Amino acid sequence: MFSLRLLSSLLMLVGIILTVTFSSLLSTRDSIYEVEELFDAQMVQTAKMLEQFYVDQLTEEQLAQLISAPILFHVDDSNIETFADQTNPETLSYEHKLSFQLLSATGALLAYSDSSGKQLLTGFTPGYAIKIIQGDKWHVYSLFSKPNQVWIVTAQRDDVRQELVSLIISNTWRSPLIITPIIMFFMLLLTYYLFKPVKLLERHIDNRAVQDLTPIDIKLPKELISTQYALNSYLLRIADTMIRERRFSADAAHELKTPLAIIKLHSDGLRDVLTGADDAVQQEALPYIQAMSEGVNRISHTVEQLLLLSRVDAIEALNITDCKLQNIMENVINQLLHVIADYEWHIVIPPEMTINADQFYLELVLKNIIENACKYSPLESLIAIKVSEDDQQTMVCVMDQGRGMSDEEINLAKNRFYRVDENASQGAGLGLFICQHIISLHHGELTFNRVEPHGLNVCIVLPHAHTQV
Questions:
Q1: Which residue among 15, 206, 327, 412 is least crowded, i.e. fewest CB within 10 A of its CB?
Q2: Which pLDDT score, from 0 to 100, does residue 185 have?
Q3: In this structure, what is the dihedral angle of CA atoms 255, 258, 262, 267, given to the nearest 10 degrees?
Q4: Residue 239 is part of which domain span?
């Protein structure tokens, strides 16, 4: 499952990175070109200034003297290698990385700087050239002054340009690397704010009661109105389907109730008639009558559960009051005297303990759970009922010594129409579903836990009144 918030943030981040990268690459390319052009222009300007202010002032006699004794312009090594090094007006940056030479038309040195030495910089071809001197790469510009028949050569070491380009590239990329995480942080805040309505809708749906199928009525942005409308339409369809299902179940149960009562009445009447017949007739007919009676009882039980389910599904509000647990348990036991007589019982209920619940429906739940404990436990086995509480909730647990349930059966036990044993079970698989529904209306929980070596512990967990949502 992917996150829209994360995906949108990543897409925006990728867009920003691509934009910054593309613009930085263009800036770097243009910067390299401009740096080359700037320094080339500087060398041309220096050569022309040497021609105008020095070469043009030389007489033939001075040129002859320079040929025999070239002038050396000494540059003190300032130990300045990068732009980051400190400079002052007397020791200028990069002075020892610049050079010039003046040569006669025949190639004799007239004047030169010692940064490149006496090795000729030019190939006596006007224009730009690259020269390797003592392992260093030099950019060279040669200018021939025709009136004076003098070659004017200016040169610059390549690392001057490369460092400047490196600084420009570094500054070009440094800012995006700093700004991008900040932008990402604000984008995450923005997406969090923009997705708040979605979280609001999620909380609203999550906090709804199970039976609440009313339309969602909260204020949402325009982009989510269609989603809200679709959800409301879906909820209305579900509610309509459930109403029809409940009506069908109730109607079917009511329609079956009368025929079943008639069949039961005739079955009992037939049994009475057969008591006067001879033994051979009774022995042959009674098994059929017994099977018919058992089938009628089973269907009648299913009809009663369907009617109860229809009634429970239609509950809109419970009559919740503080009920005395001991009185509730006495009522349940009195209703089950014909069932519980064949078992041993251990019941622990504090005399004055109360529980916040609807007494009628809580008795239904306890009756169903105790009936199940008797149904699946061997005769004369011990069944324990224990009640406990803490600051938040009250627990009513019924523990038997029957066959118990597997993890898979526990997970399915509260499903509608699920029966643990399809062949042996006499129920319709609605009892625990009804119990779970009633307990959920109380904002409680119905839990199942295996007991070793065999048995099952079923607990009703109900919150106290001050903790109910």
A1: 206
A2: 83
A3: 80
A4: 222-313
